[in-house]
Amino acid sequence: MLTVNHLRKRFGPRPALDDLSFTVHDGYILGLVGPNGAGKTTTLSCLAALLPPDGGTMLWNGRALMEQSGVTGLLPESPEVYPLLTVWEHLAFTARLFDLGPNWAESATVWLERMGLASQRDTLGAVLSKGLRQRVLLACAGLRRAQLMLVDEPMIGLDPQGQKDVRELLSLFRREGSAVVLSSHQLPLVEQVADYVLILNKGREVAEGTVADLKSRLAGSATLEDVFLSMTQDS
Q1: Coil, helix or strand for 92?
Q2: What distance in Å separates the CA atoms of residue 171 and residue 108, rounded to the nearest whole number?
Q3: Which of 133, 185, 217, 232 would give a disulfide with 201, using CB separation of 3.0 to 4.6 Å?
């Protein structure tokens, strides 16, 4: 379980995160939504140890997240792979980096199949599309059994088939027991896959709950977009 308490981060005088707290259980997807500049990517960057927070705690199963190697897997908005490594070599590199032992290749083959990468096994990273680069990173995270998946704007630049694949991959990681934090402007995606939603604005939480809970705050047949707009326009 991920527990974030009173997380704070500033860039100069401006608070990017202001006393942010939330929890994500294993096998759940948290949808992190908010306007541009709300603090979504900053939150993921702190969780991924790419940015040091100015205050607060980030715990995994009660221990400091940053003290536990191999827990977190990150799928950034612009997924980058090593251009001169093949898909299979990315998995081999991951196995060596995280000391996965002598039987890693069998598991790697399974993840190649799960991610639809078997036919791309010997393809260099330099020629992979964005969707395939995403799959490579997800396969590497799955190989090392990342318990916490951080996913930032996964739909940008993808065609309808690629978007369908992303939804299926998110569901796969949930079924595998990972805790997933999904940051996205694509509210229909969040509404469809998230178990719980946290709405941010100006670095602060303005609403949280299940999609059904949030919709119940407005009269009539409200969508998540309706709730989002009502919660962020004046906060």
Answers
A1: helix
A2: 19
A3: 232
